[in-house]
Fold this protein.
Amino acid sequence: MQSCFLRLTTVILLLTEINNGVELGARLRQDDVFILLSLGVFAFLSSLILTPVIRDWFLRFGIVDHPDANRKIHTSPVPRVGGLAILLSYLIAYPATAFGFLSVSSLIPQDMRLAAGMGAAVLIVFLTGFLDDVFGLKPWQKLLAQVAASGIAYWGGVQIHFRGQALDAWLAIPLSITWLVACTNAFNLIDGMDGLAAGVGLFATITTLMAALAHHDIGLVMATVPLAGCLLGFLRYNFNPASIFLGDSGSLTIGFFLGCCGAIWSQKAATLLGMTAPLMAFAIPLLDASLAVLRRFLRNQPIFGADRRHIHHLLLDRGMTPRRVALLVYGTCTVAAICSLLQTGDQFGGLVIVLFCIAAWVGVQNLGYSEFGLARRLLFGGTFRQIIDVQFRLKRFEQALSSAVTAEQSWSVLQTGFEEFGFAGGRAVMEGQIFESAFGREEPKEGFQLRIPLSESEYVNLRREFNKPLESGVVAGFAEVVYRVLSARLRRRSIERETSQAGAAIGPEWNRRPVAVAAGTARQ
C-alpha cells in the first residue's frame, strides 16, 4: 500500500517539472514513454466511461441547457456540466497510471510550489464554472474569481517570460493575469456550438504538447497528455449532435489550464517573439473573444452580454451545417498549430508571424463583420470629422434659435437652418401665425416630410429631397433642437398669457379688498 501511494505521489508531482528545464531525451526511458501513453489512454477511457454517467445523472436532476431558437440552436434540453467529467477523468488518469508501473523514481520532481499553485487555481476556476452551471453567477463574480485564481497561479510560478527571462513584478503580474483571464473567457465565448470548444481545446492541447516535446519539457508533457485524452473521449458525446455540453465548468477550466500552459511555454522560448507561439496556438478562441469585445464596444453594448455574432454563428448563417462549421474551425486550428510550431524556429519565425497576421486579417474581412467596416469609414473616411462639424453647426443653430424673441425672429432662424442643413423648405404655425418658406411651397417630387409638433395646434414641418446628400445625424438632430427650444418657449408664453389673463380678471376685485386679503389671494 505504501509503495502504491509513493507511485501515485510521484506521478502527480511530475507536473512541477515544468520549470526545471531538464533534457527530455535524457529523462525519457522506455518505461517513461509507457507512462505518458498510459496517462493518455487512462484519461481517454475514463472520459469515455464517466461522461455518459454524469450526463444521465444531471439530466435526471434537470440541470440542463434549454434551447431558445436564437443563440442556443440545439433542439432539446442538454446537460451542461461536462467539465465535471473532464476534471474527474483527468484526476483518475494519474493514480491509474501510478498503480500500473513499478519504477518511476527517475521522474520524481523536487519542487511542489508550481503544482500546488496551479492545482488550487484550476480548482477555483472549475468551482466557479460549476456554480454558474448549477445556480448561475453574475459576470463580475466570475471575473473576480478568475482574477483571484490567476493571482494564485502567478504565485505558484505561472508567469509570462520574455526571451526566456523573468520580467519585473510590476510588468509580469498584470501581463500574466490578463493573459490567463483572456484565455479563460476566450474558450468560454467560443463554446456556443456542438464540439467547438472541446475540439479547439484538443487542438490547442496537442499543439502545446508538441511544443513541450520540442523544448524538452517533461512536466508540460505530463500535464497536457491526459487533457488531450480527456477531451478526445469527451468529444464522443459532445460532437454534433451533442448529448452533453462543456458548460462553464468545462470551458472556463480548459481555457484557464491552457492559459497556464501557454505562460509556461513562454518560459522555455528563448526567441524575441516567443509569446507569439502560444498566441497562434490559441488563435481561434482569442480572436473570437477579441472581436466580440471590440464589436460590442463599438455598438455600445454590454461587454459581458451575449449575442449571435460569433465566428461560428456567422458561418452558420451562411448555410453551413454545425458539423461543417466545426470541421472548418478544426482545420483552421490545425493551420494555426503548424504556424505556431514553425514560429518557434529562429530562421522563419518573423515571416510566419507576418503571413499568419495577413491570413487572420483576410479571414475576419470575409466573415462580414459590418461593425468594423463602419468604424473604419468613420475614422478614416471623413465621417467622424463630419459628425463633429454637424454637431458644432447644430449647437450654433440652437443658440441662434434660443436667442430669438418673437415668432418672426424664430422663423428667420429656421429658414437659415433649412438652407444650411439641406432641407427643401418648411412650414410653421407659431403663436397664431403661419409661416412658409418661398422655396418650400411645392412638395418635392421625391422626398419626405417631417412634422415636429410643438403644441396641440402649433407645429413645424420640414421637407427634404432624397437625391440630396444627407449628413449623418442631421434630421434627428435638427428636429430635436427645434422641438426642445420652440416647445419650451411656447409653453412659457402660454403660462404667461394665462397668468396675465387671470390677473386682469381679478384686478378690480383686488382694488375693492384690503391689502392683506389681496396678498392672501396672491399667495393662493
